[in-house]
Amino acid sequence: MNPAAAASHAATRPAQYSDDALWAAVRAEGNRQEAQLELIASENHTSREVIAAMGTVLTNKYAEGYPGKRYYGGCEHVDVVEDIARDRAKQLFGAAHANVQAHSGTQANIAALMALLKPRDKVLAMSLDHGGHLSHGHPKNFSGVFYEFHSYGVERGSERLDMDKVREQALAVRPALIMAGASAYSRLIDFAAFGAIAKEVGAKLLVDQAHIAGLVAGGVHPSPVPHADVVTMTTHKTLRGPRGGLVVCNDENLAKAINSAVFPGGQGGPFMHVIAAKAVALREALDPSFARYAKQVVANANVLAQTLAGRGLRIVSGGTDNHLMLVDVTPMKLTGKDAENLLHAVDLTCNKNLIPYDQNPPVKASGVRLGTAAITSRGLGEDHMRLLGGWIADVLANPTDTSVAARVRREVAELTRAFPIYA
Ligand code: DSN
Predict the structure, then answer these.
(1) Contact 220, 189 (CB under 8 A)
(2) Is 155 a residue of the active site?
(3) What is the pLDDT of residues 197-241, one digit of tens each?
(4) Catalytic residue among 46, 234, 320, 372
(5) Number of structural domains, the chain?
(6) What is the value of pTM for the model shown?
């Protein structure tokens, strides 16, 4: 068909037979990512190589089982891919065993709970309202449905975990498992203290390091691996890989239990194209440049938090040790939902978030969660954080002033053009 005939054919083709709208949406999403500053603490911008690995023929292959022990023929090449990914994960996190098949962080947690517990066993984990995660015992999540969860939280004044209080709770609850790890906690987590408490009460320790995996890999957060029985994580947050999960541990029997809980316990065929992309990301994280990146992520978060605090916003717990901060926007007489919308209107993307002991319901919330992993990936440094903090404060302090919003939006556009993600 000549180009003119093809165009006329495409124009008359019913939408369900065409992917034009789909590819237009993919391009639009790429443009959105380039044009906005991504402050959602759980997101990042992967390398082109990571994206390329996902778009390969590996997606065509069924490979149920593990390298050398598959239920399908023709796995000789995907075996190599999975072995490379596992070896890199072990090297990066200093662990004896790795499972790279979990499709997501929640799938990784399903596998870990299945491997470590019997149904209805007691678990002590961080409260979702204080920064925990749905898969750490929310009543509608599999975790809360199949196990008896109890929760610990941060202290009212310090808004930090007090390990003496966690210990008291562990002694009272006597859980079979303690879970550590959070999705909205900005302070270092004392994994050694968690390990000691677990040992004292005869519990296993599961650390979900989803948010901080890249910081652990880069050496700017202490590793949980020496203290935990099992460590789960996602590969797409600070670790800057494809969307997916990963599990590491040191005990051989536990490794066997985890493998069997991932497949056939909770999943069927592994996503070999995603495992290839995980291998690429893990190689990138082993490079010395990744440690510099992780250090910059934390330095940026610190400067952003200080800048916002200097402009009258309240930073939960008074600051941050990692890639994220919770910003209490009530000093500006706003809800978290208002703040999220005001910032989105000037091309700053973030999410509303409960703050500890929040008076607002989750749909409104009193805070926003800001993270620096993605904006650091596109090359922003501490001076940019001072600018960014100023813009955020300008917008939140003047919510009805359209001239402030227009000026900030223009300045954000200039900065995003100067720092393209995929130049
Ligand atoms: N939804 C992720 C986050 O934003 O932290 C956790 O899975």
Answers:
(1) no
(2) no
(3) 999 999 999 999 999 999 999 999 999 999 999 999 999 999 999
(4) 234
(5) 2
(6) 0.95
